[in-house]
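May I ask you to comment on the folded chain given beneath this request?
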Amino acid sequence: MEQSLAQLSITEAAKKMQAGEITSVDLTRACLVEIQKRNASLNAYLEVFDDAEERAKAADARRAQGESGALLGIPLAIKDNILIEGRVASASSKMLENYTATYDATVIKKLKDAGVVFLGRTNMDEFALGGSTENSAFGVTKNPRDERRVAGGTSGGSAAAVAAHMALGALGSDTGGSVRNPASFCGVVGLKPTYGAVSRMGLMAAVSSFDQVGPLTKTVADAELLFEALRGQDPLDSTSAPSNQYAKRTLRKKIGVPRHLLAEGVDAGVRAAFDQTLAEMEKQGFEVVEVTLPSLSFALAAYYITNFAEVSSNLSRFDGVRYGLSQKGDSLFADYAKSRGEGFGAEARRRIMLGTYVLSAGYYDAYYGKATAARAQLTAELSAVLESVDAIATPTMPSPAFVIGEKSDPLSMYVADIFTVTANLTGNPAISVPMREVSAGEAKLPVGIQFIAAHGDESALFALGAVVESISTVRSE
């Protein structure tokens, strides 16, 4: 069966365009055909942009004039919380259903300069709060591998778009695993960069001290290509850092595994796939050693306390007065309560209330203060361990994609983040790479392996990810 152009990786497509074998218009139309076929069912895109072909023609014209950038003319999907001037950016919330961005996010400016074609905006958990894209105000995104199951979250739409060949790559945002989680569930690559490596200017804030824009791609090489295009200090983002802030490290071919974290709660198939992948890496000359991180037992609690607190603060701006949904009641308080009650979904309201609680005068020290201390301790422990290993490896998620509606209890959803939240708490870079397929009922589903590296050492992640790719049995549809 002849391969569709939409099935190409970014690096493959760039080579073909440079050689004159295909055009950006060809690529874009191929992705639009796949969108037409599958998006009504998958609900990955909330909107497909009407100017995609025009942008592709402009990219082809630039190439005809001698430009040769690797991203020139590449069609990408963009998560619905990243601002594109003149386009709706709703964060998949009724609160911002009709909000039109008045400026470009810094990452969008960089991609526009590179000549990227934006296909559309993708579905997500409302305001990036969730782990399955079931919390979108505009319906759940389904997994392309098994439409009874979730695509993951909060960047589920972006991951599904890439896995279903409705885009060659996509941008997501990662707050506690929101790029890596759906990457694992959908069988694609997801990178969460070092905190500050990529500008957050124009990314709607969920948890400001955790959030990072990151790519979802078909290959590790594509993730590296997008990361290099996005990274760099931004004068409009005081938390961004220069690319040379951290010293370069030499790859030791040594991987640390916190087996005390894998003792329970991990699906048997995922555990077996993880062990098999590590065994294959040992055959490639890597040394796998056990490491201990005592404060990991507090990571999930520290993460969610901090998450709730910052969500409460960040979402306070949506009050029905300044912008966003505005509903009228019979008093000023009623206006406020009605706007927020109808504008926010259940998960957003839950986190706002819990965040207000942990920040209140009587409980600040008992909860938020302790979470901050635990975060600092875990950061120190992780830094010490990474002095002797290239990266720490875990499964990305403790299970393959679950059935839509299966995790109706919020706590069961939170616990699923056990492996991913650490990198957000500490600011370290992390990547999820497909490793193997596992059985889940009648379905065969992809699962990912996660590597966490030292600050600024994304190169180690790309090197390790490339090794996993070479031994992986997971392939795109």
The chain is about 40% helix and 15% strand. The two ends are 13 Å apart (CA to CA). The CA atoms of residues 80 and 105 lie 12 Å apart. The first helix runs from residue 10 to 18.
